[in-house]
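It is worth pausing here to work through a concrete case rather than discussing structure prediction in the abstract. The textbook approach is simple: state the sequence, then state the predicted structure, then interpret. We follow exactly that order.
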Amino acid sequence: MVRLERVPVAPEPDRSYEEVTWAHEAFDEVDAQGAAFLACTFEAVTVTGGRWERAVWRGGSLDGVRMVGARLARTQWRGVDVRDCALSGCELLGSSLRRVRVSGGLLDVVNLRGAVLDEVVFEGCRLREVDLGGARMSGVSFPGCRIERLDLTGATLTEVDLRGATLDVARGLDRIGGAVLDIGQVLDLAPALAAQLGVDVRYPGA
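Step two, the predicted structure:
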């Protein structure tokens, strides 16, 4: 990769950027495939569509970023802070997230199928129809999150802490093994878990 002396208005494919800040920009259908962002900052940036596949983020932060329909398959994220961002209809399938903190904001219809999440913290977020089918999750936690219609089909969970989250699993409830739940969550999920196991639950005398 080439380090640029002059930073263009929008990221370019297969370029390396170090300690660059983009603020209050609008990126529409940008091609940034294979780009590397090292300790870079994205602040109040709007991303609409575009190809960001295989891009790498190491360190740095995304703050108040809005992404709609961005293609981010097989991207790599290491030690990144994501604050008050909104991702809608974004593709992150096969991506790798390690030591990432996502605080506040919204993930809406985000595809993380086959992704690897290691030591990732989602804090105070809303996750709506997030697809984690086939994902591998280890040391992930969701304090204060609202999780709606989560898809865990074929996912593998290891020490995934769901305590403190409002939890609704739409698919893949059989993959919840390996998660840590509080007693209230267990009671809320009990009817669905019983149905998953084929248990016929009836009131006394029914």
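Step three, interpretation. Confidence is low (pLDDT under 50) at residues 1-6. The two ends are 69 Å apart (CA to CA).
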